């Protein structure tokens, strides 16, 4: 039986290219999403075996989407596509429960192999990720160093994307008051009290691209 895959990337041409690549290899692409929130909804409704997600997407990035998928639909294994090979990004992805971490520069050669290994229950990391990075991750103490909740990270990403509090409330289906509360709490946790500082923190954390 063919592996059933969902693709999530905010660029239609990228999704088209990935679909062509995977279908040539005999995989079944059963759905596409343009952002992380849509990806999570489709995963819950379509139940793919694997979700291939870009780490940088609007509304909700691939990393936070992977965290949510692990909670709401753990049978689906997430493979992240990313341009980041630094320890911080790899460590956060592994902590989020991601099964595959593929560098975009190596997608054509790595993605099909990643899907096959992940389908067999293995974790796949692109060869471009050095062993030193993985060793540094494994030597870290357990626990997530990120002080923010998933919802607070969602709010932070939207703020960094230039969304107003009203926009944040609408996109996350919460009240304006609740959005304001999340904003206040994340500012307090990060000890950052102006929008420019939040944007810089979001960029350093990989929530948005500079």
Beta-strand fraction estimate: 5-15%
The CATH superfamily of the largest domain appears as Response regulator
State the helix count. 10
Q: CA-to-CA gap between the ends?
A: 41 Å
**Structurally, how many domains make up the residues?**
2
The major sheet is characterized as: 6 strands, parallel
CATH topology of the largest domain: Rossmann fold
Class from helix and strand fractions: alpha/beta
What is the overall silhouette?
globular
Query: Tally of extended strands?
Result: 6
Q: What top-tier CATH class of the largest domain fits best?
A: Alpha Beta
CA radius of gyration is 17 Å
Element-level helix/strand string: EHEHEHEHEHEHHHHH
CATH architecture annotation of the largest domain: 3-Layer(aba) Sandwich
Overall mean pLDDT stands at 86
Helix content: 40-55%
Regions with little confidence, pLDDT below 50 for 5+ residues: none
